[in-house]
Specification:
The chain has a domain of 73 residues. The protein is 72% helix and 0% strand. The protein is built from 44 helices and no strands. It is found in: Nucleus.
């Protein structure tokens, strides 16, 4: 204490607290109350009171802690050489005599000494704290100790302290490594980093993965080769290459960079060459190749700069060598990239073909590539068509006019166990085409005979347990080519035998059958050709047999015409027995033409009639038109009435309407106006006036030309009736939407059903053939034409009504001479 503190004068307010202390000198509470009083009054004797209290109670942690904190607060804004610092240090030392097991006292004392900057003295205090405190409390001291040694340039001391710290807390190794790197002690840092990378149980304090730590190690040792002597850099990075295969590119670049920084440029170049020959991904290859190209470019640039400064005789040779090396690297890029793809999958046929293209102009390299490819690629692992490699290999020899070598390649190629029979057949076909190109025609036939030879036992074509060589005899591709070659270079007998063999094996297609028939026909074996067609018909079903039937019937008609009419009829009937509607039209027309030219007219009409029911619905209208035209040509126009009636009964509404117009037009031309009017009336029931305006205009024009006032009125009445019929449904739906009452809705539904039933009955009656007959009979019995449609809901209105006035208005377009003609009596319809 200072002299001023020892001679402090107490105030009257302090007397009460002094008396309590005299009565209770060992009570911490009374001392604390006195101290709080002095703090509030900022009395100068506070330190003296603290000292008196601690003298009486030296074991009180509370008093010591508050006293030391108060003393440290008095050091604020003071210079470190102030004597007060020594007094405070002395207070801490006196406190530690009793409080040496209290970590907070040690921490405050160490923090104070760290601020004062006394390195040795502070280090001793930290060591005393670690010795005094139990090991469970050391984690509170060590962070302060580490921060202290980092602040001062005492690297050896700091390293030794860190080593002691890592024995207690090995998880702090990363902090030690960062410190070593900061003080440029990279060798020990690399060793520590390698150590934690090899520890399987190490957990990074900063959340780094083993892969990140490994990258840091590689980056550290590769960029500082001269400072790291204790580690085998090459072995470490190669170990990483084996361990982290997805980071091959960066690791190879790190290893090459290590040798570049070490000044071993040739060794670095060897590393780059090794890397681009071993990487297996395009990404790694791109990284390594770019680094390699940059290295060569910088090396060349540096050599050019050196040559420009100090010219030497050998500079030109060395410069040209480096330039040639760089150019060679750039030229090899595509080839090296292709090698990467093949390392990924050596069974990729397309990559082998690309490699051959890259060797254009280098025959020895091409041969070596093909040889390597056919040896490496396995048929069951091949990606692509393996046989194309063998064929391309043989064609390369053929291109260089080495036919014997090409044959040798083909001989080996046909023995390869391909996965598909078609691949083997392709090889045989390519071999045969090569022989043809060089004019060995007889050898080609022998070759194909060898390819199609029967095996020792019969096997199924799709039995994959058997080799493709055993199943080749059932390949249609090889047999088709064999047949073509026999047609070109063989005899009739041998070619026929080949086609017969194809039929026996039951591998023929419709085109094969047609080709066989044409071949026999060319050689004037017509009956043999027809038998071939019949065999084909027996092999196939519809629709595959369509082309065979079409060719067969066409050829048969061309050959015999009508000389074998019954046989031809049997063929057509056999064809049409199971013929689908889609293909029936052509055969019926051909059949009818036969009957017209060589048979009976009634047979032809019968065929046309059958055709109208046998073809597709969309083809019926066209077929009826043909039927009508033929009937008119043969029997005359009146005979077509029955056909028109049948067509009207069968066709759709749109086509029926068009057929009715044609029918009416025909009757008009024949002078049968009443018949035409009946047809118009029948057609009106399927003609909505809002849609089929053209129909009503045609009927109106007809009445203007051939009718009178009564017939026009009747036509207009029918038009109104039909329009009401089509509006009924719409009106009833509107009424249903407007009515909210349940009874009203039910009544509307009943009315709508009733009217719809009446409408449908009327339409059905009018459209039926019986109704047409009924109308015909009625007209024959009547002496006056009066066509009316019975409508129970119709209101009888006199002639002076508005509707009749509207009829008169519409009739104004009728010429006057037509209006004054009295109603004539027409005879009934007659069937001629």
């Amino acid at each position: 204490m200072t002299n001023s503190e020892q001679h402090c004068i107490f105030n009257e307010e302090d007397v009460l607290y002094e008396e309590e202390i005299l009565r209770n000198p060992y009570s911490v509470k009374h001392w604390q109350r006195y101290i709080d009083h002095l703090k509030s009054s900022k009395h100068l004797s506070l330190n003296l009171v603290y000292e008196r209290a601690l003298k009486e109670l030296p074991g009180s942690y509370k008093l010591w802690y508050n006293y030391l904190r108060h003393r440290v607060s008095q050091l604020k804004d003071r210079c470190i050489i102030d004597p007060l610092f020594d007094i405070v240090n002395n207070a801490f030392e006196r406190a530690l005599v009793f409080m040496h097991k209290m970590p907070r006292i040690w921490m405050d004392y160490c923090s104070l000494m760290t601020e004062q900057g006394y390195i040795t003295q502070t280090r001793h205090i930290f060591d005393r704290a670690l010795r005094a405190l139990p090991i469970t409390q050391h984690h509170r001291i060590w962070p302060l100790y580490i921060d202290f040694v980092k602040k001062h340039n005492v690297h050896e001391t700091a390293v030794r302290i860190f080593r002691r710290y890592l024995k207690l807390a090995p998880e702090e190794t990363e902090e030690y490594i960062d410190y070593l790197i900061s003080i440029d002690r990279l060798d020990e840092a690399a060793m520590k980093l390698a150590n934690i990378v090899n520890q399987d149980d190490f957990v990074s304090k900063y959340g780094k993965s083993k892969h990140q730590l490994w990258n840091e190690l590689c980056d550290l040792i590769s960029k500082n080769p001269t400072k790291i002597k204790s580690l085998n850099v090459d072995a470490i990075i190669r170990g990483g290459l084996r361990r982290y295969t997805d980071q091959a590119g960066p690791l190879w670049n790190a290893l090459a960079d290590y040798y570049v920084r070490s000044g071993l440029f040739e060794r670095a170049r060897d590393i780059y060459e090794e890397s681009i020959q071993t990487v297996t991904t395009v990404r790694d290859f791109s990284q390594v190749f770019d680094a390699y190209a940059q290295f060569e470019e910088l090396s060349l640039k540096k050599r050019i700069e050196e040559a420009s400064e100090v010219p030497i005789e050998d500079d030109d040779i060395d410069l040209e060598l480096r330039l040639a090396r760089f150019e060679n690297l750039m030229e090899r890029r595509l080839l090296l990239l292709n090698s990467v793809s093949l390392r990924q999958n050596p069974h990729n046929v397309l990559d082998w073909h690309k490699r051959v293209e890259l060797y254009q102009g280098q025959p020895h390299e091409i041969i070596n590539t093909y040889t390597e490819a056919v040896q490496i690629v396995q048929p069951h692992l091949a990606v692509g068509k393996l046989h194309t490699l063998w064929v391309a290999f043989a064609k390369f020899y053929e291109k260089n006019e080495q036919i014997s070598d090409a044959r040798t390649i083909f001989e080996k190629a046909v023995l390869v166990p391909y996965l598909k029979v078609d691949d083997l057949a392709s090889v045989w076909c390519e071999w045969a085409e090569m022989e043809i190109r060089y004019g060995f025609n007889k050898d080609v036939l022998k070759l194909m005979h060898q390819a199609t030879a029967m095996p020792s036992r019969k096997v199924a074509y799709h039995d994959e347990t058997e080799t493709v060589q055993m199943r080749l005899y059932r390949s249609l591709k090889i047999w088709s080519m064999y047949a073509d070659l026999e047609e070109s270079f063989g005899t009739f007998k041998t070619c026929k035998a080949v086609y017969d063999k194809i039929l026996d094996l039951k591998i023929a297609t419709p085109q094969i059958i047609i080709n066989y028939g044409l071949f026999l026909e060319e050689n004037n074996y017509f009956e043999e050709a027809f038998r071939a067609y019949e065999k084909g018909i027996a092999l196939f079903k519809w629709p595959n047999v369509f082309d065979i039937w079409n060719t067969y019937l066409t050829k048969f008609l061309k050959r015999y015409g009508g000389s074998k009419l019954e046989r031809t009829r049997d063929l057509f009937e056999q064809c049409l027995e199971h013929c689908p509607r889609k293909y029936a039209k052509a055969f019926y027309l051909l059949y009818a033409k036969l009957e017209e030219e060589h048979g009976l007219a009634r047979h032809a009409m019968s065929v046309y009639e059958r055709a109208t029911n046998a073809v597709l619905p969309e083809e019926q209208f066209e077929m009826f038109n043909i039927y009508i035209k033929k009937a008119a040509d043969i029997y005359g126009v009146p005979k077509t009435r029955e056909i028109y009636e049948k067509a009207i009964d069968i066709l759709s509404e749109e086509k029926t309407r068009e057929m009715c117009l044609r029918f009416a037009e025909m009757e008009t031309k024949l002078g049968e106006v009443d018949r035409a009017r009946v047809i118009y009336a029948h057609c009106s029931q399927i003609s909505d006036p809002r849609v089929s305006c053209s129909f009503w205009q045609i009927w109106k024009d007809f009445e203007v030309s051939h009718g009178n006032e009564d017939t026009m009125r009747e036509m207009l009445r029918i038009k109104r009736s039909v329009q009401a019929m089509y509006n009924t449904q719409v009106n009833m739906m509107s009424a249903q939407m407007l009515n909210t009452s349940t009874n009203q809705i039910n009544e509307s539904i009943d009315v709508m059903k009733l009217r719809n039933n009446k409408i449908s009955e009327t339409v059905d009656i009018i459209r039926s053939t019986q109704t047409i007959n009924f109308i015909r009979e009625t007209m024959e019995e009547s002496n006056k034409f009066d066509l009316r449609i019975i409508n129970p809901d119709e209101i009888n209105i006199e002639m002076n009504s508005d509707d009749d006035n509207s009829d008169i208005n519409e009739m104004e377009d009728i010429p006057i001479e037509k209006q004054i003609i009295p109603v004539q009596v027409f005879g009934g319809l007659k069937n001629d």
